[in-house]
Amino acid sequence: MAIAHTSKITLTVGLDENRVPEELHWSAQDGGIENEEAKAMMLSVWDSKNQESLKIDLWTKEMPVDEMKVFFHQTLVTMADTFMKATQDEKMTATMKDFCDYFAEKLELKK
């Protein structure tokens, strides 16, 4: 099957003199996103050749710890949803969601 269209997602990281992120911006033209600011990001890619996950985790100096906790919780919930879509493994998805609830409870994120 031939590739009919390509889509580009770009990340721009502004670093201070010590190479610590001060600014994060991202664009995804097909999604209508142009140079949007972010305070944190996590990117994981699968290296099939080496059978390992590669990742980039960045956050700016301005990312508050309380927001980081919410960001992690929401990322874990999203990972559970994606796991379900990818594997149809309902039992493990439920286990992952239970952990997400536990995580939120321990961080007092749930009201």
The averaged pLDDT comes out at 96
Major sheet description = 3 strands, antiparallel
Which strand order does the major sheet show?
1-2-3
Uncertain ranges? none
In one word, what is the shape? Answer: globular
Query: Care to count the β-strands?
Result: 5
Distance between the termini: 49 Å
Strand percent estimate:
25-35%
Task: Write structural notes for this entry.
Helix 1 packs antiparallel against helix 2. The strands form 2 sheets. The chain has a 3-stranded antiparallel β-sheet with strand order 1-2-3, with no helix packed on it. The chain contains 2 helices and 5 strands, in the order E-E-E-E-E-H-H. 36% of the residues lie in helices and 33% in strands. By secondary structure, the chain is of the alpha+beta class.
Summarize the structure.
Helices cover 36% and strands 33% of the residues.
